[in-house]
Design goal:
Layout: E1 9-13, H1 23-33, E2 37-40, H2 49-66, E3 70-73, H3 76-81, E4 86-89, H4 96-103, E5 108-113, H5 116-125, E6 129-132, H6 151-159, E7 166-169, H7 174-182, E8 187-190, H8 192-195, H9 200-214
Parallel strand pairs: 1-2, 1-8, 2-3, 3-4, 4-5, 5-6, 6-7, 7-8
Helix pairs in contact: 1-2, 1-9, 7-9
The structure holds the ligand Cc1ncc(COP(=O)(O)OP(=O)(O)O)c(N)n1, 4-methyl-5-hydroxyethylthiazole phosphate and magnesium ion.
Keywords: Magnesium, Metal-binding, Thiamine biosynthesis, Transferase
Pathway: Cofactor biosynthesis; thiamine diphosphate biosynthesis; thiamine phosphate from 4-amino-2-methyl-5-diphosphomethylpyrimidine and 4-methyl-5-(2-phosphoethyl)-thiazole: step 1/1
GO molecular function: magnesium ion binding; thiamine-phosphate diphosphorylase activity
């Protein structure tokens, strides 16, 4: 599974991000639009743990049907319960080594990093990819801290002692994609630029085209199937 991961367009989402719509429907549309990876991030939504598990099961089975890797945010217990393809942890979450011990060697482990030092430690302790951000200002994560800009990606990319996939996250929309990719990211992770839009499919198509264009791939014609 690890080798097959495509980081181009990573949707991070929970029910709190979907403007009252069914998250399963939003995810389905985002998959139609060309997302390559999904993270279930249920935060302060008011769902009980039981409701979270139940929603996670529905999202997980959609990802399985549509062949999209399914990552769980923060909680190793939920990742195991849902037989997720991976777990994402930040600097205040389960330590990377312990997270790795819980999920085993085969599931993907993503780690948030803002600096070269955090990135280097994540690499040493068993991370498979880095989420670097917040790149731009974001209202989605009030505790995200000040934007670090695309330059942080360039610095981590250049100074990391061995290569690791990087996704930029935080305030990224179509206009911000090129800078993030040109700084050295393998892809972009977004919440509101897909889940907060009236047409999540169209939003995903446009983001995916922007990623491919910035990565130097030939831009497809309007309405192309980006997968
Ligand atoms: C891909 C990706 N990158 C970064 C984060 C942020 O993780 P964290 O800092 O732990 O913050 P929360 O998402 O838990 O609020 C992420 N979730 N995904
Ligand atoms: C989860 C997370 N981690 C750093 S910024 C952020 C929120 C990203 O949301 P948006 O794409 O809407 O700015
Ligand atoms: Mg976290």
């Amino acid at each position: 599974m690890k080798g097959a991961i495509r980081y181009s367009l990573y949707l991070v989402m929970g029910s709190q991000d979907c403007r009252g719509r069914d998250p399963v429907r939003v995810l389905d549309q985002a998959i139609d639009g060309g997302i390559t990876l999904f993270q279930f991030r249920e935060k302060n939504s008011g769902l009980t743990l039981r409701e979270t598990v139940s929603l996670g099961e529905r999202l997980r089975s959609l990802c399985r049907e549509r062949n999209i890797p399914f990552i769980v945010n923060d909680r190793a217990d939920l990742a195991l319960l849902l037989d997720a393809d991976g777990l994402h942890v930040g600097q205040d979450d389960l330590p990377v080594r312990q997270a790795r011990r819980l999920i085993g060697p085969h599931r993907l482990l993503g780690v948030s990093a803002e600096t070269v030092e955090e990135a280097e430690q994540a690499l040493r302790e068993g991370a498979d990819y880095l989420g670097v951000g917040p790149i731009y200002a974001t209202a989605t994560k009030p505790d995200a801290g000040k934007p670090i800009g695309p330059g942080a990606i360039a610095e981590i990319r250049q100074r990391l002692s061995s290569p690791l996939p990087i996704v930029g996250i935080g305030g990224i929309d179509v206009a911000g994609v090129a800078e993030v990719i040109r700084a050295g990211a393998d892809g972009v992770a977004v919440v509101s630029a897909i889940a907060g839009k009236p047409d999540p499919r169209k939003a995903a198509v446009e983001l995916r085209q922007a990623v491919e264009r910035a990565a130097g791939a030939a831009p497809g014609p309007a309405g192309f199937d980006p997968r």
